[in-house]
Amino acid sequence: MTKNIALLILLLVQSFFCIIYSMSIEIENNNIIDPKVRWTGNLSAYFLDNWGYTVLTATELPLITRGIKTFTPGVFDRYTDLQTLRLTENEIASYPEKTFSELAKLDEIYLDKNYLTKISKSTFNENIQLVDLSSNILTSVSEAFLTLSRLDTLILSRNQISNFDFVGSIPSLTYLDMSFNTISSITCSKIAQLETLILAHNSRLT
Questions:
Q1: Selection from 126, 114, 135, 132 nearest residue 71 by Cα
Q2: Is residue 71 pLDDT above 60, yes or no?
Q3: How far apart are CA 168 and CA 96, in angstroms?
Q4: What is the structure's pLDDT at 28?
Q5: 129: which residues sit within 8 A by CB, 6+ positions away?
Q6: What is the dihedral of CA 179, 161, 118, 91, to 10 degrees?
Q7: Lowest model confidence (mean pLDDT) among 33-37, 45-49, 159-163
Q8: pLDDT > 90 in the chain, percent
Q9: CA–CA separation, 21 vs 174, rounded Å?
Q10: Residue 147 contacts residue 125 (beta carbons within 8 Å)
Q11: Among 144, 147, 149, 157, CA closest to 198
Q12: Mean pLDDT throughout 145-172?
C-alpha cells in the first residue's frame, strides 16, 4: 500500500514538471528588469528596452512619472523619427549636453513637473515648436530660446522667472504662459507678436 502511494506521488510530480516544461511563456512588453541592474534614475537604452520602447521608428515617447533623474548621453539618438517627447513628472534636475538637440524631427517636448534650475542655449533643436517647462525651479531662461526660429508655444508657468524680455527675439512665438512666476513689469514692444499671453498670479506685477 505504501509502495503504491509513493508510486502515485512520483507519477504526479513527473506530470507536473512535464506540464511546466511544455508551457509557452511570453514576457514581452513588461517592466521586468534584471535584478542585477539597479535603477538609479539614470535613463539608458537598457531601461528603455525593458520598458518596451523598442520601436525605433516611434514618433512619441511617453516617459511620464518614471523616476528619471538624468540621462545617459545619446539615449534618444536612435529614435530618429521622434516628434514628441513626454518627460512630465519625473525628477530631472540636469541632463547631458545635446540630449534633446540632436533629435532633428522633435517638435514637442514636455519637461514639466521636474527639478530643472536652468536651461542651456543648446538644449533644443532649432525646429522645436512647443516647449513645456512649467512647474520647475527656473529663475532665468533668457538665452535658451534665442535660436529657436520655429518656436510657437512656450509654457513657463509655476517657476521663479522675473522677466521675459527674451520674447522679442522669438518672432514665431504666439503663445506664452508665464503665470505663477515673479514678473514685475512688461515691455509692450517685446510682446507685440503674441496672440496669447498668460500672466495670472504674478504678485509683483503692478
A1: 114
A2: yes
A3: 28
A4: 42
A5: 107, 108, 150, 151, 152, 153
A6: -40
A7: 33-37
A8: 63
A9: 62
A10: no
A11: 157
A12: 91
Nine-digit cell string for 102: 540632436
Q: Residue 108 pLDDT > 60, yes or no?
A: yes
- Please state the rounded mean pLDDT for residues 40-58: 94
User: Which pLDDT band holds residue 166 (cuts at 50, 70, 90)?
Assistant: confident
Only one residue has cell 528596452, namely 49
Identify whether the C-beta of residue 103 lies closer than 8 Å to the C-beta of residue 125: yes
> Which amino acid is residue 140, in one-letter code?
S
User: Do residues 178 and 202 make contact, with C-beta atoms less than 8 angstroms apart?
Assistant: yes
Map 81-139 to HEC letters. CCCEEECCCCCCCCCCCCCCCCCCCCCEEECCCCCCCCCCCCCCCCCCCEEECCCCCCC
- 27, pLDDT greater than 50: no
> Burial of 5 by CB count in 10 Å (0-12 exposed, 13-18 middle, 19+ buried)?
exposed
All residues at 6 or more sequence positions from 89 whose CB lies less than 8 Å from its CB, including other chains: 64, 65, 112, 113, 114
